[in-house]
Amino acid sequence: MTGSDLLPLAVALLIGLAAFGSCIGVAMSGMKLLESCARQPELMERLQGKFFLAAGLTDGAFIIATGIGLWFATANPFAG
């Protein structure tokens, strides 16, 4: 079994694990946002801005992992 045979599995794991981690991270931070807005409603606007910044950075990591995975899938640097 060569590296090019395992490439689809590696790309699937790269994209799948990044998507799973991103979804869990955004869900947990959204949970904490709702929790903190329920405790102190006067801070809701400031908390929302920070939440969307953090969610964007978390999703950015997923987009970068997807780009690297698709680059490996098309360029196939392990073909030799």
Give descriptors for this structure.
80 residues; mainly alpha; F1FO ATP Synthase; 0% strand; elongated; transport; lipid-binding; ATP_synth_F0_csu_DDCD_BS; ion transport
Describe the structure.
- With 80 residues, the protein is mainly α.
- The protein has a single domain, classed as F1F0 ATP synthase subunit C (F1FO ATP Synthase, Up-down Bundle).
- It contains two helices and no strands.
- Helix 1 packs antiparallel against helix 2.
- The two termini are 14 Å apart.
- Belongs to the ATPase C chain family.
- List the total number of helices: 2
Average pLDDT reading:
87
Strand content: under 5%
Architecture (CATH level 2) name: Up-down Bundle
User: How many whole angstroms does the radius of gyration measure?
Assistant: 18 Å
- Low-confidence runs of at least 5 consecutive residues: none
| Shape call | elongated
Number of strands: 0
CATH topology: F1FO ATP Synthase
The profile of the biggest β sheet is: none
The level of helicity is over 70%
Measured between the Cα atoms of the first and last residue, the distance is 14 Å
What does this entry show, briefly?
The protein is 81% helix and 0% strand. With 80 residues, it is mainly α. The longest helix is centred in the first third of the chain and has 33 residues.
Compile the SSE list and pairings.
Elements: H1 7-39, H2 44-75
